[in-house]
Design a protein that fits this description.
The longest helix has 18 residues. Strands 3, 4, 5, 6, 7, 8, 9, 10 and 11 form a 9-stranded parallel sheet that branches. It contains 16 helices and 11 strands. The protein is α/β, with parallel strands linked by helices. The two termini are 29 Å apart. Helix 1 packs antiparallel against helix 12, helix 7 packs parallel to helix 8 and helix 12 packs antiparallel against helix 13. The protein is globular and about 60 Å long. The chain folds into 2 domains: 245 residues, TIM Barrel; 81 residues, Non-ribosomal Peptide Synthetase Peptidyl Carrier Protein, Chain A (Orthogonal Bundle). Bound molecules: flavin mononucleotide. Flavin mononucleotide binds next to helix 10.
Length: 356
């Protein structure tokens, strides 16, 4: 159980913000695969939102079926940040997350993202303004510091707690590291130790229930956030949660269940974005999804070369027909205990209410 200001989340496993991936369609796909915890939009430029940038508004789309979901904002200017936070509160965000970890030049050149790690006092004042501008909880996602010689996260996290930030997520790498090397469990543990009352969520390299157990045991963090592993295996969040809750890892979905999940993801993209966007995204994603489907090279090639949603359906139908009966006979895993009302897999027209 995570205590986040006024509300409690029953699941300590969070879906990370991942630019280019965690849009509404993908978050709902993860939920259909059993994820019940907190999820985030990808990072959104606070000014871009307010200026009505079409891409930003697409990415900011949230839904009442996708709760709890936070909107992640980046920027450097307190006025823009506060107005964007109020806008997100207005569209129904459960919370606002401040991006303090993005290492990408486009973001750091505007003094946003992980540049905020470099001046903890100024960043704390910025966070305080944002906290005071909305009624919903505000959280922050940090890296350990700009570089190994500039580890600022423990101090910054402590200060952020004092001004009312409700969760700290710490990715156990520095900005200079980007994604190199292993995430530092000791670094995460230092941030946990620096903070007195609010939950600290550990992030970095959690790709299995075992990795989550290891991180929590080593760092005493209150929960874990999963990013890259969810891209190819949206059910990994449910697997991690099951393991943390019961000590046992739920069985992996059957191949047929995975196929249905991919179909659902495609349908949701068509519904919330467009046919064109669904095809562009799925052509790029199929390699990741394919890693857990066995030997499906010709199928992946068909998806990469598809020209229409009908091509996608035909390829999926053929894949489904080729699945061995033993893989499909007994539904188990994340879908076994759910009715079609509880999750949209297997229904042709999931009924998702859109907030914006
Ligand atoms: C393609 C990509 C996009 C990302 N976009 C964001 C983002 O929008 N906001 C953010 O805070 N972190 C972002 N991250 C960082 C992840 O949220 C996470 O901190 C990092 O990938 C480590 O977790 P993992 O080992 O589970 O992948 C991104 C990472 C990747 C690989």
């Amino acid at each position: 159980m995570l205590h986040i200001g006024p509300f409690h989340a029953d699941c300590p496993v969070l879906l990370a913000p991942i630019a280019g991936y965690t849009d509404l369609a993908f978050r709902l796909t993860c939920r259909a695969a059993g994820h019940t915890g907190l999820a985030y939009t990808e990072l959104l430029h606070s000014r871009g939102i307010l200026e009505g940038n079409r891409d930003s508004l697409e990415i900011a789309r949230i839904s009442t079926d996708d709760t709890p979901c936070g909107v992640q904002l980046y920027g450097n200017d307190a006025d823009w940040f506060c107005k964007a936070a109020q806008w997100a509160e207005g569209i129904g965000a459960a919370l606002i997350d401040i991006n303090m970890g993005c290492p990408v030049d486009k973001v750091t050149k505007t003094n946003g993202g992980s540049m905020l790690l470099c001046d903890p006092d100024r960043t704390t004042r910025l966070a305080e303004r944002i906290v005071n501008s909305v009624r919903i909880p505000v959280t922050a996602k940090l890296r350990l510091g700009w570089s190994e010689c500039a580890i600022t996260a423990p101090r910054l996290a402590r200060q952020l707690e004092e001004v009312g930030i409700k969760i700290i997520t710490i990715h156990g790498r520095t900005t200079a590291q980007r994604f190199k090397g292993a995430a530092s469990l000791d670094g995460i543990a230092e941030v946990v130790a620096a903070v007195a009352r609010i939950p600290v969520i550990g992030n970095g390299d959690v790709d299995s229930p075992e990795a989550a157990v290891r991180m929590i045991a080593h760092t005493r963090c209150a929960g874990v956030m999963v990013a890259r592993a969810a891209i190819s295996r949206p059910w990994v969040l449910h697997a991690v949660h099951g393991r943390l809750l019961t000590g046992r890892t739920p069985p992996e979905p059957t191949v047929l269940e995975k196929i249905r999940l991919i179909r659902l993801h495609f349908d949701l993209m068509r519904r919330f974005r467009s046919d064109r966007m669904a095809m562009i995204v799925m052509r790029g994603r199929i390699a990741a999804y394919g890693t857990s489907l066995g030997h499906v090279k010709p199928f992946k090639e068909r998806i990469r070369l598809m020209h229409s949603p009908a091509d996608f359906e035909a390829a999926m139908d053929d894949l489904e027909r080729g699945v061995e009966p033993a893989w499909t006979s007994v539904p188990h895993g994340v879908f076994a205990s759910r009715t079609s009302e509880q999750h949209p897999i297997g229904t042709t027209e999931p009924d998702f209410a859109i907030c914006t």
